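DATA SHEET
Item: assembly model
Revision: 1
Owner: S.N.
Input lines:
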Amino acid sequence: MKAAIEFKNVVKSFAKRDGGVQYVLDGVNFSIPAGKTTVIVGGSGQGKSVTLKLVLGLMQVDSGEIFVHDKNVTWARGTELEQLRTQFGVLFQGSALFDSLSVFENVALPLRELTDKSETQIGEQVAATLAQFELTGHEEKYPAQLSGGMKKRVGLARAMQLKPSIMLYDEPTTGLDPVMSHDIYHLFARTQAEFGFTSVIVSHDVPKIFNLADQVIILNNGKMDVFDSPEKIQWSEKEYIQEFVRTTMGDIYQSHLVE
Amino acid sequence: MKSNSLVRLGDTGLYVLTDLGKMAIFFLKSIRGAFRRPFRFIELLRQVHFIGAGSLVVIFFTALSTGMVLGLQGYYSLNKFGADGMLGSAVSLTLILELGPVLTALMVAGRAGSAMCAEIGIMRISEQIDALDCMAIDPFRYFITPKFLAMLVAMPLLTAVFDVVGIGGGYLAGVKMMGVSPGSFIEGMTTSVTNHDLKVGIIKSFVFGLLVVWICSGRGFFVREIRGAGFGAESVSRVTTQAVVYSSISVLVFDYLLTAVLL
């Protein structure tokens, strides 16, 4: 299967305050299949968000190579990096909406800044997207006036404007109650089915998030284990994964929240 | 023990050099943003309004009180030597060359600089700047460069307002209250203030404006990387305080350097 993203022997470390070095990614190799959903899980500080930042060029690797659609983007800079980023849509943990812009302006921002579309065309496209994400009637509201779930929907609507080929979700349901998380997962599944992009979801919400996963990556102490389905995780003989299964996945087959 | 101190010293030295390097790159990217398209003219006007028109009241009262104090103090000193006719010259030169640019910069740093730093810091910790990066929108072109350009427009204008109001305050105190002759006040001012003095005042206001906007927006932009700043809202508050202190000290240091070079 064609890979949307590939990591080859990627090493990323950070200096510790005591003078030591912490290896967040220690020579990891994996590929993310195009058009599928990959879920990355792991404890806090294990490098889940760092992995996303490396893909986006917000951080640089110590060594190794990163490929996006078979193109080596490890050291992409300037215009090349900007072009790379237009292929991605990103939904941030806190939605990262611009406080001083209304819902309409937030969603219209990438169109206004990065395309030559007229205001009429932008208005029509934004209105259609807002309707699709059930946000019609909230155009004039500001982020501070929205609920957590609505902020996520606006963030997703904004990320979808330039029709990305890869969507990155960084802890998308953090801070949401179970009902709202359920709605958001439905929205992810529906949107991906409609647009067919590649999804990479970093999440703590195990096992529910596995209902969306075609592939699962578990990060632990700088190493990665890749499973081509969530069910296969429980067959791993590695002790830390067995512990992970015991503590987080006991009810994986009972949690069919997203059909 | 000794080697530990050396390690700490080296560590601090490296941190300071790295920080200065980042700030230098930040400055260059802010300038480069002016040449990238699309140019955000409306945002520039909005910032000129915020920095310029928004600071007018505080500049007016600071200038008026400073000018009046100069008028009274100047009269007190000059009168001892029977030279109160020089009051217009003393007040206008002091305001145009020193107090106008310096006090305007300090007031703008406290009012607009702190707001800029806090705004950018909050945008950074709430991932809004990361979001711009991820959307391939240059954050410098989008909102840092308009602040730089707006400051370069607003600071000389505010300094000019400060000078005029300050001289008016000096006239009020010296002529209307202490009885100095209006003719000698104006005569002293017009004969002693040269074009060179006006240029020095304008150059200073440009340099101070650049220092204030660079330090205040740069500190906010790097809020997550500043040692000892802490996290979240606390980091923004600490860095905002730091930005105002650093920019105020820089203005005073550069005032001396520019005076030494330009006079």
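QC remark: Residues 194 and 200 of chain A are 16 Å apart (CA to CA).
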